[in-house]
Amino acid sequence: MRLLHAIALFATLPFAALAVGSDDSDPPKPTQTTTQCKNGEVWDEAQQKCVPPQHNDLSNDTRFRAVRELAWAGRYDDAMLVLSSMTEGETDRVLTYRGFILRKSGNIEQGIVAYEAALKLNPHNILTHSYYGQLLVEMNEVDAARVHLAAIRADGGQGTWAEASLAHAIDTGLTYTY
Description:
It comes from Fuscibacter oryzae. Residues 1-19 form the signal peptide. It holds the Pfam family TPR_19. The protein is mainly alpha-helical. The protein has a domain at 92-178: Alpha Horseshoe (Serine Threonine Protein Phosphatase 5, Tetratricopeptide repeat), CATH 1.25.40. 57% of the residues lie in helices and 3% in strands. It has 9 helices and 2 strands; from the N terminus they run H-H-E-E-H-H-H-H-H-H-H. Strand 1 (42-44) and strand 2 (49-51) form a beta hairpin.
């Protein structure tokens, strides 16, 4: 049974790049944000140029797409600059993104604080549970990660990337770079 689970999971790995709060299961396609913009700037389609992330014409969704793209490219400092420009406040999705970026940039304790704050706001955020659980696997706290997997399943997350990626991490000890 475990072998069948592993085969099924590996068959879905091309779709396992779901990242930081996106419903898209594909890696973000590089845009001018990562190919031309520097220092946390974001490509503004309307102006056809790179603009500071605080630019008034950028929506939070545009900023989130930029955070995702920058994080996927390993540009965590730039991703954090863009995330810091979010105008929606300390929502669970902002805190989840913050936890992910902090975790991936090596700030484990701060990442934990962000994940826990996100879960305090929304204990049913399955993406937060997945990323937090993967962090726990990286820390060799597999039993604690299983608690997050159970929460994902209890909140209707069966069959989602959040469940599959955490289950894979628990089974193999390997987490996703993104």
